[in-house]
Task: structure prediction
Amino acid sequence: MEASNKSQVMLRAFSSRNFRLYYTGQAISLIGTSMTQVATSWLVYRLTDSAWLLGLVGFTSQIPTLVLIPLGGIIADRTNRHRILLVAQILGMLQSLALTWLALSGTINIEYIAILGVLQGIINAFDIPTRQAFLPETVSKENLGNAFALYSSLVSVTSMVGPAIAGLLIVALGSGLCFLIDSISYFAVIIALLAIQLTSRKVVISKRKPLEELKTSFKYAFGFLPIRSVLIGSALVCCVWGFYLALGPIFAKEILQGGPNTFGFLMTASSLGTLAGGIYLTKHSNVLESGKVLALGIGFMGVSLIVFALSRVFWLSLLSLLAAGFGFILQIIAGRTLLQLLVSDENRGQITGLYVMASTGAVPIGNLIAGALASKIGSNNTVILGASICIAGSIFFMQQISTFRDLVRLNLPTEGA
Result:
C-alpha cells in the first residue's frame, strides 16, 4: 500500500488527460531530436576533424535562439500558445526532412548543416518558450512541480535512449537514418497537440511596445533575487554543459580511443544522471529549499566534470558524466519549477523567454568558447576551467541561501506550494 501511495505521488500529474497526451507525443519526438543531435555532432567532426568548427557549428545553430527568444516569449503571451506549437512542430519536421534528404543523397556538407542549423535555431526561438509556458495549461497548479519533474525526467530518458540508438545506427547505416527517424517522430507530437482539449485562455492585449515589455521583464527578473539566481545559475551550468556537448566527440575519439558508439554511450551516461535527478525531485519537491538545490546542483556538476576531464578510463568517464548529469538537472528542474510558480500567467511567456535565453542560449556560447579554448589549451583543460567556474558559482550562491528562502516564502501564491 505504501509503495502504491508513493507511486501515485510521483505520477500525480498524469491524472490530467492533456498532460498525458502532451507527455506521450513529446516522448516519441524527443528521441528523434536527441538522435539528430548526436548524428549531427559526429557528422560535423567527421567532415572537418576540427574542434573549432565543431564548436562554431554548434554556436551558429543555436545563436538565433539566443537573439530571438525574447520575442518568442512576448508572442507566447500575446497569441495562442497551442497554435504556435503546432506551427513550430510542422516547420521543424520540414527542416529535418531537408537534412535527411541531403544526408541520404550524399550531398551533405558543413555549409548545409550550418544553414539548416540556423533555421532550426529560429524555430526553437518561438517553440521553446511557448512549450514551457504551455505546460502549465495542461495540468493543475498543485501538480505543476510534479509535471516539470516528470517532463524533465522524460527529457533525460529520451536523451539517454536516443544517443545510444544513434551511436549504433551511425556505425551501421550512417547519420541519414537518424535524421529520417527524427523527421517521422514529429508526427507524434503533432497528433498529440491536435488531440489536446483546452479551455480558452485569455490572451493578453498589451498597448506597450515589445521593447518596453522586454525592459519591464528584465527589470523585474534581475531585481528579484530568486529569479535572478535561477537565471544566472541556469546560464552558468548550461554554458559549461555546452563545453561538454561541443567537445564530446573529441573525448570519445582522441582521449578514450573510441568511435560514434563511444560518444553515444557518454551522452547516455549523462542522460541517465539527469533521469536519476528528475526521479529524485519527483519525490522531493520542497520549493522553499530550491536555493540550496540550485547551489548544490551547480557545485556537484562542476566536481564531476573535473573528474571526467581527468579520466582516461571509459568506465570512470561514464560514472563521472552520470554524476554531472545528476547535478545539472537538479539546478534545471528546481529553477524551472520555481520560476513557473512565482510568475503570473500574463507574463509567463516573457519571463520563460528570459529563462530560456539564459539557459538554452548559453549552450551555443559554451560551444563557441569551448571550440576556441580547446584549440589553444586542449579539451581537458577547457572542461576543467569551466567546471571550476561552476564550483566558484556554487559557493557564491550558498552564501545567499537564507535571503533566497525568505523571499520565496513571501512570494509564493500559497505557503509551501
User: Anything to note?
Assistant: Residues 17-48 form the longest helix (32 residues). The mean pLDDT is 80.
